[in-house]
Each structure stands twice: as structure tokens, then as C-alpha cells.
Predict the structure of DNA polymerase III subunit gamma/tau.
Amino acid sequence: PRGVGKTTTARLLAKTVNCTGRGANTEPDNTCDSCRALGENRALDIIELDAATHTGIDMVREHIIENAAVRPMQLTYKVFIIDEVHRLSPNSFDALLKTLEEPPAHVIFILATTELHKVPETIVSRCQRFTFHHIAPDVMRARLEDIAKQEKKTVENAVLETIIARSGGCMRDAESILDQLFSLGDSIGPDEANLVLPQSQGAHAYPFVRMVLAGDTQGALETINQLVTQGVSLEPFNRTVIEILRALLVSHFAPAMTFPYLEGFEQERAALTEAAATHTMEVLQEMLTAFLESLPALKNTSVPALPLELAIVRIAAVLKKPEQMPALAYSAPRAPEKNPPSAPPDAGTGSEPTSTETQNYPPLSREQATEIMNQLTAEMQKTNPSVALILRNPSAMGSVNDALVLEVAFPLYHDQLMGNGNRRLIETQLCAITGTPWKLTCRLVDKETAKETSAAEIGSLAGEIAAAFGGEVS
């Protein structure tokens, strides 16, 4: 990980191996000429290179290979510290390999990286590896308290906890935050810290998670839209929500586990655990999955709130709270009959529902299915006009078990409805409209019927497409 002392340790190692006054000790004496030269940054034989900036083979040849052949001018060893070594190009690694295999006796290489998996195995196998870890919270606290004591500053425990949580185990970030707070005065409490530290995502995320756990769909949707209005970035907000739900799920199986880097969780833990106890683990997993799957969509959507709104609606359907769903124009579905009427013909070439368990919902007539499709098209027109345009082509035929059956004349329409993520988007909106998790099935009509599509119908479709994109048919 970054900010845990890799480069600092490399410098200390370079100082230790070149110390002429340490004798049998493992620590440098910091008084000899070599130690003083290193401490004052005037040791010419300690060469630090940033591979993130100098990645090419010319840098490796000029600064490393040719330089390594020259004996040190001041110190016993010439030490090369290559930071972010994984950023070197493949050709640079190939050029460096021979020198690493047979280094001169007076040369020591220290390679530092945050992404070991990107370093070629041929390089790793020729090195002695030391793995660094995130700094433990108690160690970080002791270090921050020591710094505050040396600077004669008073920092309250609540502020230290906030710094530790914000740092994510990175000592460098923690010291940087503490240094910013020192500019506020000699005594630093939460009120002073809030002047420098940005507002935590937890201030919005924890109330939102409580709404989701309580099944308050309306409140959760209103919260998302309020955040958009306030200009809050939904991607980091969603990441915090995911971290909270993940902590809840993990703590169910490991109650003693703590989450020091998740700010505010320990204070909210009891209330959240109590709220989560009303749900099964499967429901919690579905909640976590819904927000996880919305994360990539947040980066690409033109409607920032939509991915999270779909996740909330999906969770509402899982919680089976139909009273929170918009009512339909037709009557609510009846309980399944023991001998349901015969279903429409098999969906044929269309994609079948992905679930292996088929639910037997009350069958829909063609008129009911058409009414649902009209409502669906109207709703999609508000949020996703391109999908709404696709929905104008198929004919609703009714339902089969838990699937709404549509019929299209051309393979293109079939592929558009069932692919590119459109199917899941339509199914989610269907659930929001009807309160029933209908699945979508699409089938092609026979070729003879498809040929009967008139030129007038094609012209009408072309006009709709042109209107949707602000153009005209010529």
C-alpha cells in the first residue's frame, strides 16, 4: 500500500549499509560522515529514481546500467532506490534484468512498488522481498499523539479517530491531515477540525442506509434527489453505502471484527445491526449487490440519480412492499388458481427468463399487457427515450407464468430489447409500475407475417426515430 514507509525505509537501509561508525550495531550512528551526508541530502552515491516519471529504456541505460559500472565516490555502496518500479516499460525491465542478475559488488538495488503483480516474475525472483502493510490504528494513534506532543498541540480523541478513519491506514496521509489542523491553533477539537476536513460521506450515507433497511423507498428516493440538488457526487456516496452494507454483512458472521477505517461505523453499529436483524442474509446480499451493480453505471449515465434509483426500486421489490409501488389502472393481481387457464404459446426463439425458479403469477390478458406496455413506454420516455423508442415496436401478447410476452417482427428489435442491458432496465421499471417482478420474454413472428409490414408502417417508424433525435425524414 501507499504511504506506509517504503521509500523512507529504503533511505534508512541505504544509510545503515554505508554507516562507518555503527560497528556491530544494526542502527546507523548518525554521526559519521556518511550518515551526515545522507541526512543533509548531499550523498552523490544514493540515487533515487521515480519510475512513474522516467519509464523508458534510455533512462535505465543512462542512469542505472552505465552508472552502476562506476564505483562510488564517497560511500561504501552505491544505492539505487527505484520508486514505483512497476511503471517501467517492458523493454526497461529487460535491460535492467542482466544488471540485477549479476550486480557489481559495490551496488545495491532497492525497488519499491505498490503493485507487485505488475512487476515481471523474472525481476521479482531475483530480489529479496519485504511486504509492507497498512499501519494499525493503535500504532497510528500513538504516532499522531507523539507528533502533537512534540509540536505542543492538544488534539482531542474524536479528531484523532477522524484522522485515522480518513487516512485508510496510510501514515503519510494521516500526518498530512494533522499538519493542516495544526494551523488552526494550539487546541484542536471537532469544531475546529470541520473547518479543514471536508464533510464525511457518512453524514449522508448512514441515514440513507437506515431508510433502505427500514424499507422507506420514498425517503430513500427523495434523499438521492436532494443530494443531486445539493451537488453531492453520487459515486463516492455510493461507495460509502457499499462499505457500510459490507461491514454489516461481515459483522454478522464476525461480530468481534472492527472497521476503524470506516468513519462513524462503530458509533452507528448498534442501531444498524438492529435494523438489519429484521432481514435475512439473502436480502442483505441483494441490497449490497444492487448498489455494487449501480457503481459502473454512475460513471456513464447522463442522469446521475438513475442508477441509484433503480437500485432502490429493485430493493423495494425484494422487500415485497407493494404499498410503496405506484398503483396500476387495472385491478391488483388475484391469488394464483390451482388450475390456471392455458398460457399463450411458447416464447419460441426469444430469450427465456434467467431464473431457474418460475413463479405462477395470475395471467394477464392481451389488453392488460398492452396497458402495462403503454405505461412502461411513457415512464421510459422520461428517463431513457432511446429505450422508449424501442418499446413502441413490439406487441404485447399476454403473460406466461412470471414472464410478460412481447412479439416483434424483426430480429433487430428482438436484439435491442433483450441485449445491451435494456432487458434488465425494462424489468426493473416493470416492477416499479406493477409491484410484481415480471420478467421479459420476446419472440419473433413468422417470416410471412413479417413480410406483410407495409411501407407506410416503415415510414411511420422512420418518422418516430427522426423525431426522437431531432431530425426529419427526407
Notes: The radius of gyration is 32 Å. The CA atoms of residues 206 and 274 lie 14 Å apart. The chain has four domains: 6-124, 137-193, 202-323, 366-468. The first helix runs from residue 6 to 18.
